[in-house]
């Protein structure tokens, strides 16, 4: 689905992404791991249109999407979530979901005045869909809570829910487990697996929690210093000497020894 070819993104003399090439296959849950500063989030930002590539290209289903704007990629079904959830804090959780689909009739002043029936009909359908999404994610009980008042883990679930309000093909998740307690992390993991298996979502996720990666991801891509270092199953990359070397001092070597 996504092919990245010799991608570079430089900031002055600093090469955040330095010739990365990789493939994310349709229907996979691909993990992207690597030490801090490896270029993972920059790579996500280039793929998702938030940054323009310095050189190289990104293909989606064979189409060159390099340099397209986020809203153009959104329309193609490529979505990206953030390490820190971006919610409308003063709106309810349900309203946050209902905001997502574009081109709503109610956005036009003319329709708001003269096509009230059509606007009401659309809103009822959106509300129904939002409630179905909340039920799928097992967070119906917070539907009427202000989004700014819910926990960090619940905000991550709401972000996942926002991707379900449109026809997402591939979703890039940036550290979905950051600051989330184990119970909610399991709920998020269950939702990702169900979306993958039941609705055909393709996922690529950046994550530091190796247990979470091991549970969800195959394959796993390892980045270091802006380049792709290794790719394979969790077991394969954890036993790869180059990966152990790249992670030296950040705990993976100890984890490999402990699990070995």
TrEMBL record:
Record-linked SUPFAM superfamilies: P-loop containing nucleoside triphosphate hydrolases
Entries under SMART domains matching the protein: AAA
Span of domain ABC transporter: 2-250
Entry keyword set: ATP-binding, Nucleotide-binding, Transport
An annotated GO cellular component: plasma membrane
Gene Ontology molecular-function annotations: ATP binding; ATP hydrolysis activity
CDD domains given in the database record: ABC_Mj1267_LivG_branched
Matching PANTHER family: CONSERVED COMPONENT OF ABC TRANSPORTER FOR NATURAL AMINO ACIDS, CONSERVED COMPONENT OF ABC TRANSPORTER FOR NATURAL AMINO ACIDS-RELATED
Protein name: ATP-binding cassette domain-containing protein
Origin species: Stagnihabitans tardus
């Amino acid at each position: 689905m996504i092919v990245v070819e010799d991608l570079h993104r430089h900031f002055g003399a600093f090469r955040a992404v330095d010739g990365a090439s990789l493939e994310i296959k349709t229907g996979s849950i691909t993990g992207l791991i690597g030490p801090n500063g490896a270029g993972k989030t920059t790579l996500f930002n280039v793929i998702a249109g938030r940054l323009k590539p310095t050189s190289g290209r990104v293909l989606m289903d064979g189409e060159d999407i390099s340099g397209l704007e986020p809203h153009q990629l959104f329309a193609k079904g490529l979505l990206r979530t953030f390490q820190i959830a971006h919610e409308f804090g003063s709106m309810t959780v349900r309203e946050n979901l209902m905001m997502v689909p574009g081109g709503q009739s109610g956005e036009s002043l003319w329709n708001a005045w003269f096509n009230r029936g059509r606007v009401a009909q659309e809103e009822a359908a959106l509300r129904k869909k939002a409630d179905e999404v909340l039920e799928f994610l097992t967070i119906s009980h917070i539907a009427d809570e202000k989004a700014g008042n819910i926990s960090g883990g619940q905000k991550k679930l709401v972000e996942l829910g926002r991707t379900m309000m449109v026809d997402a093909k591939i979703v890039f998740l940036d550290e979905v487990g950051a600051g989330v307690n184990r119970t909610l992390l399991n709920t998020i993991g269950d939702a990702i697996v169900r979306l993958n298996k039941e609705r055909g979502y393709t996922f690529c996720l950046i994550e530091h929690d190796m247990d979470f990666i091991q549970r969800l991801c195959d394959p796993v891509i390892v980045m270091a210093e802006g380049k792709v270092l290794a790719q394979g199953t969790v077991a394969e990359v954890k036993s790869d000497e180059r990966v152990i070397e790249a992670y030296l001092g950040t705990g993976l070597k100890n984890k490999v020894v402990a699990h070995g």
